TrEMBL record:
Domain Metallo-beta-lactamase positions: 13-195
SMART domains: Lactamase_B
Enzyme Commission numbers on file: 3.1.2.6
Cofactor names: Zn(2+)
One term of GO molecular function: metal ion binding
Stored InterPro entries: MBL_Glyoxalase_II, Metallo-B-lactamas, RibonucZ/Hydroxyglut_hydro
Organism: Sunxiuqinia dokdonensis
The protein's name: Hydroxyacylglutathione hydrolase
Alphabetical UniProt keywords: Hydrolase, Metal-binding, Zinc
């Protein structure tokens, strides 16, 4: 059974997740640690739980979600997975950080590309990859159907949706994809978002002002 640990990191208050199971293998999703103490907090948790990171997996590659990639690559020697259509965001991380007055270092290219229908595997666990562009062109959502949760990145938030004014964002595409690819999931599905608290598919169907008919 997958366990989930959430950290809130960096000046943008981004949620980084560590997912692990009974084997001790784990993946780090949206590694956003920026300050030294944030890197230490992440490392301490992994050490205390005696976990072995095997992958860095990103829902998308906006700069606040990849600020910790360099640290995690160096510390754990693990590959970086994301969708190919977000490769340009990795290349442009320094410029994007400058727009928010946050100095960042370059990040090396994505090691392995994720595609619709892929599975992310670690230990005895799997997550299904759903491509949900609109906030970012290569945005994916990670779905665990048996445990009924998704890692939604910046697609869907508690009472809100991802912004679409960033490069290659598209409001109509985002809303359409949420309705066709996420709202078909069971209402009980827990949504772990890239910022803010958890929510559920059922709650957002009923109350999200951006998605009500």
């Amino acid at each position: 059974m997958i366990q989930i640990k959430k950290f809130t990191f960096n000046p943008i208050q981004e949620n980084t997740y560590v997912l692990y199971d009974e084997t001790g293998e784990c993946i780090i999703v949206d590694a956003g640690c920026f300050f030294d103490y944030e890197e230490q907090e992440l490392d301490n948790f992994i050490q205390e739980k005696q976990l072995t990171p095997v992958k860095l997996v990103n829902t998308h590659c906006h700069f606040d979600h990849i600020l910790g990639i360099n640290h995690c690559r160096s510390k754990y020697h693990v590959p970086f997975y994301a969708h190919a259509e977000d490769a340009f965001l990795v290349d442009e991380i320094v410029a994007h950080g400058d727009r928010f007055d946050i100095p960042v270092e370059p990040v090396d290219a994505i090691d392995h590309f994720l595609n619709e229908g892929d599975q992310v595997r670690f230990g005895q666990s799997t997550l299904d990859v759903i491509h949900v562009p609109g906030h970012a062109p290569g945005h994916v959502v990670l779905h665990q159907p048996e445990q009924q949760f998704i890692l939604a990145g910046d697609v869907l938030f508690y009472g809100s949706i991802g912004r679409t004014d960033l490069p290659k964002g598209n409001f109509d595409q985002l809303v359409g994809n949420i309705r066709t690819k996420l709202f078909c999931l069971p209402d009980e599905t827990v949504v772990y978002s890239g910022h803010g608290p958890e929510t559920s598919i059922g709650f957002e169907k009923k109350s999200n002002p951006f998605l009500m008919d």
